[in-house]
Every structure is written in structure tokens, then in C-alpha cells.
Design brief:
Elements: H1 23-26, H2 35-39, E1 44-49, E2 55-64, E3 69-83, E4 86-91, E5 99-104, E6 110-115, E7 122-127, E8 134-138, E9 144-148, E10 153-159, H3 164-171, E11 188-194, E12 199-202, E13 210-215, E14 221-226, H4 232-235, E15 241-246, E16 252-255, E17 263-268, E18 274-281, E19 292-299, E20 304-307, E21 316-323, E22 326-333, E23 336-344, E24 349-353, E25 363-368, E26 374-381, E27 384-394, E28 397-405, E29 419-425, E30 431-437, E31 448-454, H5 474-479, E32 483-488, H6 497-501, H7 509-524, E33 528-538, H8 540-551, E34 558-562, H9 568-574, H10 578-586, H11 602-605, E35 619-624, H12 632-645, E36 650-655, H13 665-682, H14 699-708, E37 718-720, E38 723-725, E39 728-732, E40 736-739, H15 745-751, H16 770-784, E41 787-789, H17 793-807, H18 813-817, H19 826-830, E42 850-852, E43 855-857, E44 865-867, E45 873-874, E46 895-896, E47 900-902
Parallel strand pairs: 31-32, 31-33, 33-34, 34-35, 35-36, 44-46
Antiparallel strand pairs: 1-2, 2-3, 3-4, 5-6, 6-7, 7-8, 9-10, 10-11, 11-12, 13-14, 14-15, 15-16, 17-18, 18-19, 19-20, 21-22, 22-23, 23-24, 25-26, 26-27, 27-28, 29-30, 30-32, 37-38, 39-40, 40-47, 41-47, 42-43, 44-45
Helix pairs in contact: 9-10
Length: 905
């Protein structure tokens, strides 16, 4: 619906006729990023093409504040139907639950999916033509990883039912956690569900948990992995074993036994002659240390795997997508990715560049159709929000490119800072890349503060793509006036095998040298002030930040370390992958004889804990209580050391029930806001001066806010040439301003000197007739040279409809009654009001303001009714009844006015 008034509510802009001191405190710039903007940014996830390639089902996550969690809802896009220049999209699910893993039926008519609704153990079904989701079947032992065997049988992963032993322990309410018990290690298996008969068939009989699986398009072949150790992710020993099953004959053979690293992401080609998969490669196969990703093809006829020659030493970046018998691969390309097609030939594969509308390095494939002739992909840079497109593929060319869906239109007016990929020479004079975000309103030649935002991993990577999230939010920091640098230090992925392995047995040294040389390069260019630096990071980013404050105590004004280690001796046993990680980077176990010391001294030398007495940097620490990647006690050790040493201010926040990555909305926001306050205090020397006993919406707050908009003699309004006129605030961009308050007795007396009122009621609303209201606005226009008027009926109606939600809580009959009265009680209550003529009307602004395009406007929900241009009045006086149904009084006996100011052309 469109209105001639109050349009574009998302344009949060306010301008006052004359400067008023209070406005700076009550206005938030709508162009500025807030933590809430970051948290509520939407992304397209889990897109799946229909078998005929005409539709795409996908998920959009959203933050659900009421339940303090993120959920995803399903959407359906029809590629063969256009609306407003884009494929037609409908929302399929709208529940406050998480709907996920959508999959089309073989005939394209239905979508099956899983959901957290009803304990998450049911299979759900939707018609592509609309209607409510139907529960197909309940799986008491759980259900995950849906794949079709044929048009009737849906494969899924689940566990077996409870054993007698488990039932006995459950009856005893025995909640003891057995850390290791190989005799009772319960496997997960693949089952088949027959949609017609509602029967379940066991497909695999593996004796250990399933790791991952894929079924061929024709339903004949099944490849799956079996995890061989309950602590595989911790000790990397032994690797999973892989099996190929012929579903027609039930023959099972072990495959891929020659590969030294774990394999994953199995995908059959469209003719089912073989499947592709990804395998790692590094120099330390014993511990599966960080390396590069390589692509393989398994030939079903030859029962043999073959490495695909990528002709690219940095390996795979994002992954790969099937294009019929060929593959589209996202190659690692330092701070970007490079998309390439590998065409299957008799001799092997031919490499072809693919055109993404001249934006190859900033495009990410999301989904491809079964035939490989259609694609959905995303585009973004570090300085542009994600956009999503669909296209037809012909060879290595993309045709008929159109925008797939518009997301985040509410963020379109936000200022996005400039960013660029920068390079410099770091450790051993090798090239280092990073993403540099510029301060808002950057002026060349001026030196600015710089904040490091260090990624985790350490084999993570920061690329030139949109990455605002709770753990790193460069746009918020840049609008505070600082550079933000995301360095891809040695040990980062996407830069090749030598680069990612360079920190093994050499932890901290290359990384810190890279970062310091990056800072020095920016200082040499005259861009940053080395006396105003800070460092932030999560996981390995926190680990590096901490060691930087140890080795360079005077370099940083603050440190914000989230979920970082300080003691590698305790990490080895308590981190869920400590055995693999620590031995890879430190050259063995803590007790191993290294360099004749009879123990691995790296666990001591590399632990900041034993040098934290050097730290003088104000440090804020974050940790989740259930973190098993960097166990929570690492945070306690870090905090206790700094707190006992007493050289540096320290604050420790512990998030109950949270794993390595914070999952609750409230926790993500708390982390961001605490971190920002720490940065304001110690980098910008602007500590938050907030009275912790002061409630923002309390009567005291209302009184203080009103006091700030009074004139020197305590009257509301603006003095012009010694004449008091109403203050107005802009509520329709470049067009209309509205009176902040109703016109007061003192303001009306400036027009009519004979106007009388009780002593002390200068700031009360004037009560008058319609002709007097018109005459007053005409007088205002004459003395100011501007055009003042009353609101039109349409404008007044929309204003007071907005106020209706709080109308009962403002100055109306319900306020004086002390409860929400009903219509039948009005006549009885008014018997008590006979002798209170005018006594119920209050001074303007007694209640909280209502935000209209972020402008604070008072008394729209009560006090006096207000005239509009046709002589009628809208709103409610203190003597009027209002409830959710009763939207307009018959005719109020207590009428005032609120002015509208039209901007000159």
C-alpha cells in the first residue's frame, strides 16, 4: 500500500528546523551499520534444482529474536516464470522452526524436507503448488541426509533403536558420559524408506558410524565412508574406510585404500560411469595436517581412482559442482577464487575458463542442474553485499543471466566502506595478501588508527567477498574512523601447499612477521598511526593476537581475544582435535624427545601462558562454556593470569551453553557490543559514560529528554525574533516537517496576546476551535515566510493509527481509570469526571515519544485530539475512550492542533 504521507519508513532521516542539542543523542544515523544490521543480514543457502531444471528450492536463514536463535525457511523459485525482471519466488514455510535439507521428488511435483518442528524426527512433504506441509512419517531413531534411490525409495541416515543396556541406563536416569567404550560404539547406517508402503529397509550393515555417502543417479551404486575411530577428529587415526556397494546385487567392496588422506564430497556424473570426490594432500599424512584439496575421479568400470590434473598448484578453493559429465571447480586463488570447467575426455580432462559476466573471481557457484545447463551463483566483494543470479550454461559461457532473488533491500542505504586486496612482502620475503578496509570518509595523507581482524584456522583465509558477521565486522569499525586489516598470514589456505605448511613446527614466527611487516608497509605509505593500533580475532585469530601482545607489549592499545589458546600443554588432551592439531604444528606429543630435551619444549615455548607477565595491553576475553575446539578453561587460564599479574585491564565474558562459534542471537550481539565498548575505551579514548542505574524509558528519562528541547526560560518551542513558535521535525524526506509537540498555550499566546490560561500551564496544549487553528497556522506562515498548515485527513489518520498501539498507555480514559476500560464502563466512569473539566489534560510530552522515521514526536496517542484541514479531528483526548477496536472518537470536546511545515521548493 502506498500513502502520500509517511512513505519509505526505512529511510530513517530526521532534520530539525533549527539546531537542537537533544537530537544528537536521540538520533541514530540510518546510514550507519549496527550490530543488529550485521546479525540480521540474509543469505541464500542450500539451493537445490528440480530434476527437470525448471525450479530451485532454497533456504533463507533469519534471526528469531523471540527464541534467541537462527532458523531457516524454505523458498521456491520458478525459473520459467518471471516477475519484475526476476524468476518468480514464493515462500514455502513460515514456522518459527528450522526447515532444512529440501529435496525434490523425482516427478518434480513435491518437496521433501526435514525440520526441527515436532522434535525433528519427522519427514515432511510440500506440494510445489502450495498448501501446508504434511508430516509423511516419524522416525523414532532420527533422520538425516536425504537422497533418492528411485522415485519411491528415499535413503536416509539413522541409528538403530535402543539396546537393552541403553534402556536400562535410561530407566536408572544414568547420565554418566563414557569417554571411550569401543564395545558400545553405536553405528549410524543408511536406511531406505518406501513412500508407498511406509516401510523401512536397512541398506548398509556397517559396524562403525557412517561418515558420508552418495547414491548414483540410477540408484544402482552407493559409495560411503565408515569412521574407524570414535576420536577420528581428535587423533586422525585411523582414517575412514570407503566402500562401494552394488544395490542390485548387494556386493560390497572396499575402495580408495591407497589414498593417504580422508576423502569426501562424492558426486556421480550424470551417466553414472563414475564419481568425483575431494581428497586432501599435505606433507604429514600421519596427522592429516593442513594442506591443499585435490580432485579425484573414480571409474566404476575400472574400479580405480584417478587424480584430476587441475593444472593449478594451489588446489581447490570453494569446492566443485557437477556439470553432467564435467565439473565446475572453484580454484584457490590467494585472496579470491578462480572458476574453471574441466571437461571429461577419453584422454583425461580439458581445462576451460568460464565467463561469469566478467566477474569470475568474485562469483561463487551455489547449485547446478542435473544436466549442467543451468546454474545459480552468488556475487560479492568485501565492499558489496551478496547478489544472486541464475544463468543458462552453454559450454564455458553463461547466457541469459538474470538476478535470482533480491535480499537485504533494507540495507541498501547503508554506507559501505571502500576495501581492496593488498599485498606486501612478509616472512622470508614472500608475498602476503590481505583485505584492507578504509576508514569512513577517508582523506589521503591523513594517518588513521588500524584494527587487525585476524582469521582463525590457522588455515582459514580472508577473501575479497562480503564477510560481516558477529566475529568480524569491519564496516562498523571503519565507520568509527579506523582502517581494518584482515591479513592472510603464512599458514593460511588458498595460497598453495608451501604457504599453508610453512608454520608447521614453526608456529607463530611467520604469522607475526607477516602482520608486523604489513603494518610497517601501511605506516611507510603514511596511512596509519602506529601509536593507535588494536588487534581482534577468534580462535587462531585470538591465539595470534595474544602472542602479539606478549612479544610486542607496547604496540597495541587493546586486544579482543575470542576462544583462543594460551596453554598448549593442556590443549593437547582437552581439545577435541588437539592430538592431530598440536602434533602437526609442534612436531609431536608433549612427551616426545625433541632436540635431546627428553620432552617437546615447543609446548612450553609456544604457550603464551608462561609469558603473560609481559602483557600490558587492555584485553577482553570471550569464550563459550561448551567449546571443545578451544576448551573453555583456556579462557580461564588466560584471564586468571592477567588478573593475578595485574599489569593490564582484563575482562572475561563466558557464554553459557555455547560451542566454539556463538549460536544465540543475544550472545552474538553481546559479544559485538562488549568488544565495541572496549575498542571505544582503549583505542579511541572514548569510554562509555553510562549511568547503570538510569533506565532509558523511565519517567526520569522522559523528563530529561524533554528538558533538552526547552528554551532557556523553560518553554517548549523555538524563539524566532523573540517570538515563540512550534519546533518541527522532518518526517518525510525533503518535504514535510511535523510539530514535535502539540501547540502549547505559550506558543498560541505569542499569536494572540489576550489568550488566557492557568498559571503554570504554559507548556500545556492549547484548547481551541477549528477557525482559531487555521488562523494560527496562517499567522505562522506570515511571520516566518514558510508554509505552515494543519495535517490533511489522510496524514492525520496515518499518524494516529501509528500511535494507536500505545494509545491506551498515553493520556486517555484508560490511563486515568488505572486499567484498560471497556466501552460499557465509559458512561459510568464519566460520572466521576463531571467536575474535572480540563483537569485531565497534561503538559505536552508527559509520556514517551513515538518514533516516526526516527524523529521523536510526542502525544500522538492522547492528551488532546488534533484538527486536520477539513475541520475534523483525529486522535484522542484525555477524556476519550480508546481500545484496539475503537479507532476514532465520535467527536472530541478537547481539541488542539499540531502544525505541518512544508519545505520550500
Amino acid at each position: 500500500m502506498k500513502y502520500s504521507f509517511l512513505v519509505n519508513f526505512f529511510v530513517l532521516l530526521i532534520t530539525i528546523l533549527q539546531p537542537v542539542k537533544a537530537l544528537a543523542q536521540e538520533i541514530e544515523d540510518p546510514h550507519k551499520w549496527t550490530p543488529e544490521d550485521v546479525i540480521h543480514t540474509a543469505f541464500l543457502r542450500n539451493a537445490v534444482f528440480s530434476p527437470d531444471g525448471s525450479m530451485v528450492v532454497w533456504a533463507k536463514s533469519r534471526a528469531l529474536k523471540e527464541k534467541d536463535k537462527f532458523i531457516s525457511n524454505l523458498y521456491l523459485t520458478r525459473l520459467n516464470k518471471m516477475e519484475d525482471g526476476m524468476p518468480f519466488t514464493v515462500r514455502l514455510t513460515n514456522q518459527d522452526e528450522n526447515d532444512y535439507s529440501p529435496i525434490f521428488s523425482k516427478d518434480n511435483n513435491h518437496i521433501y524436507f526435514l525440520s526441527s518442528r515436532e522434535k525433528g524426527k519427522k519427514l515432511w512433504k510440500l506440494s510445489i503448488y502450495g498448501g501446508e506441509a504434511i508430516a509423511v512419517h516419524e522416525f523414532k531413531n532420527g533422520i538425516s541426509n536425504l537422497q533418492w534411490k528411485n522415485e519411491n525409495i528415499l535413503l536416509f541416515v539413522s541409528k538403530e533403536g535402543e539396546t537393552l543396556r541403553e534402556e536400562t541406563l535410561k530407566k536408572k536416569k544414568d547420565d554418566v558420559k563414557v569417554v571411550e567404550d569401543s564395545l558400545h560404539w553405536k553405528p549410524s547406517r543408511i536406511f531406505g524408506f518406501d513412500l508407498k508402503n511406509k516401510t523401512i529397509e536397512r541398506i548398509t550393515t556397517n559396524t562403525k558410524p557412517l561418515n558420508n555417502y552418495k547414491v548414483s543417479n540410477n540408484g544402482k551404486w552407493l559409495v560411503y565412508a565408515m569412521q574407524m575411530s570414535p576420536h577420528f577428529s581428535a587423533d586422525a587415526q585411523p582414517d575412514p574406510t570407503y566402500f562401494l556397494k552394488n544395490l542390485a546385487t548387494n556386493e560390497v567392496i572396499q575402495i580408495l585404500s591407497e589414498l593417504k588422506f580422508p576423502s569426501s564430497n562424492f558426486q556421480f556424473n550424470n551417466i553414472d560411469s563414475g564419481f568425483y570426490f575431494v581428497s586432501s594432500f599435505s606433507s604429514d599424512p600421519e596427522w592429516n595436517g593442513a594442506g591443499i584439496q585435490e580432485l579425484y575421479y573414480y571409474n566404476l568400470a575400472e574400479r580405480k581412482e584417478q587424480k584430476v590434473n587441475l593444472e593449478w598448484e594451489k588446489g581447490i578453493g570453494r569446492g566443485y559442482w557437477m556439470l553432467g559429465n564435467d565439473v565446475l571447480v572453484s580454484l584457490a586463488n590467494k585472496a579470491t577464487f578462480k572458476n574453471v570447467i574441466y571437461k571429461r575426455t577419453k584422454a583425461g580432462w580439458e581445462k576451460e575458463a568460464v565467463s561469469f559476466n566478467d566477474s569470475n573471481e568474485h562469483c561463487t557457484p551455489i547449485a547446478t542442474s542435473k544436466k549442467g545447463n543451468k546454474i545459480v551463483y552468488g556475487y560479492s566483494t568485501a565492499s558489496s553485499l551478496p547478489l544472486y543470479f541464475t544463468a543458462d550454461r552453454k559450454g564455458n559461457q553463461l547466457k541469459n543471466i538474470s538476478e535470482f532473488i533480491k535480499l537485504n533491500t533494507n540495507l541498501s542505504q547503508k554506507k559501505i566502506t571502500k576495501s581492496e586486496v593488498i599485498t606486501w612482502n612478509g616472512y622470508q620475503d614472500e608475498e602476503v595478501t590481505g583485505i584492507l578496509y578504509y576508514p569512513e570518509n577517508y582523506i589521503a595523507g591523513k594517518k588513521y588508527p588500524l584494527i587487525l581482524s585476524i582469521h582463525g584456522g590457522p588455515s582459514g583465509v580472508d577473501t575479497d567477498e562480503w564477510s560481516e558477521r558477529w566475529s568480524t565486522y569491519p564496516n562498523i569499525l571503519s565507520q568509527k574512523g579506523a582502517f581494518v586489516l584482515k591479513p592472510n598470514y603464512h599458514g593460511s589456505s588458498n595460497h598453495g601447499l608451501k604457504y599453508v605448511e610453512s608454520i608447521k613446527k614453526n608456529y607463530y614466527i611467520p604469522e607475526m612477521e607477516d602482520i608486523l611487516k604489513g603494518l610497517q608497509m601501511l605506516e611507510t605509505k603514511g596511512m596509519i598511526d602506529m601509536d593507535r593500533l588494536g588487534t581482534t580475532g577468534w580462535s587462531n585469530g585470538a591465539i595470534i593476537s595474544t602472542m602479539l601482545t606478549v612479544k610486542y607489549p607496547n604496540l597495541f592499545k587493546f586486544a579482543a581475544a575470542g576462544a583462543g589458546d594460551v596453554n598448549w600443554t593442556s590443549d593437547f588432551g582437552t581439545c577435541r582435535f588437539g592430538v592431530s592439531f598440536d602434533q602437526s604444528y609442534f612436531g609431536g606429543a608433549p612427551w616426545d624427545d625433541v632436540n635431546g630435551t627428553f620432552y617437546n619444549e615447543n609446548y612450553i615455548i609456544k604457550s603464551p601462558l608462561f609469558e603473560l607477565d609481559k602483557v600490558i595491553t587492555p584485553t577482553i576475553i570471550f569464550h563459550g562454556s561448551e567449546d571443545r575446539a578451544v576448551p573453555r578453561d583456556q579462557g580461564w587460564e588466560y584471564y586468571r593470569a592477567l588478573q593475578q599479574i595485574g599489569k593490564a585491564p582484563v575482562r572475561f565474558l563466558w557464554f553459557p551453553g555455547q560451542p566454539h562459534g556463538l549460536q544465540k542471537i543475544s550472545h552474538q550481539l553481546r559479544k559485538m557490543k562488549e568488544e565495541m565498548a572496549w575498542i571505544d575505551t582503549y583505542l579511541f579514548d572514548n569510554p562509555k559514560k553510562e549511568n547503570e542505574a538510569f533506565k532509558k524509558d523511565s519517567p526520569l528519562a522522559i523528563l530529561l529528554k524533554k528538558q533538552e528541547v526547552k528554551t532557556a526560560n523553560g518553554l517548549y518551542g523555538i524563539p524566532i525574533n523573540n517570538t515563540l513558535i512550534p519546533e518541527t521535525v522532518l518526517i518525510k524526506k525533503d518535504s514535510i516537517s511535523l510539530g514535535r509537540f502539540e501547540v502549547t498555550n505559550a506558543q498560541f499566546k505569542a499569536y494572540r496576546d489576550t489568550h488566557g490560561f492557568k498559571i503554570g500551564q504554559d507548556n500545556y496544549p492549547v484548547l481551541l476551535k477549528f477557525e482559531e487553528a487555521k488562523a494560527y497556522t496562517a499567522w505562522l506562515s506570515k511571520i516566518t515566510g514558510d508554509k505552515y498548515r494543519l495535517p490533511t485527513p489522510e496524514e492525520a489518520k496515518k499518524l494516529h493509527e501509528k500511535a494507536l498501539k500505545v494509545g491506551k498507555k498515553e493520556n486517555t480514559l484508560s490511563y486515568w481509570a488505572g486499567y484498560d476500560i471497556t466501552l460499557d464502563e465509559v458512561p459510568i466512569l464519566r460520572e466521576k469526571l463531571i467536575e474535572l473539566t480540563n483537569e485531565l489534560v497534561m503538559e505536552v510530552g508527559r509520556f514517551s515519544s513515538i518514533k516516526i522515521e526516527n524523529a521523536a514526536v510526542y502525544d500522538l496517542g492522547g492528551n488532546v485530539a488534533e484538527y486536520c484541514t477539513n475541520g475534523s479531528s483525529y486522535g484522542f483526548s484525555a477524556y476519550d475512550f480508546v481500545d484496539s477496536v475503537h479507532k476514532k472518537p465520535a467527536r472530541s470536546a478537547y481539541n488542539g492542533l499540531r502544525v505541518v511545515l512544508e519545505k520550500k521548493n
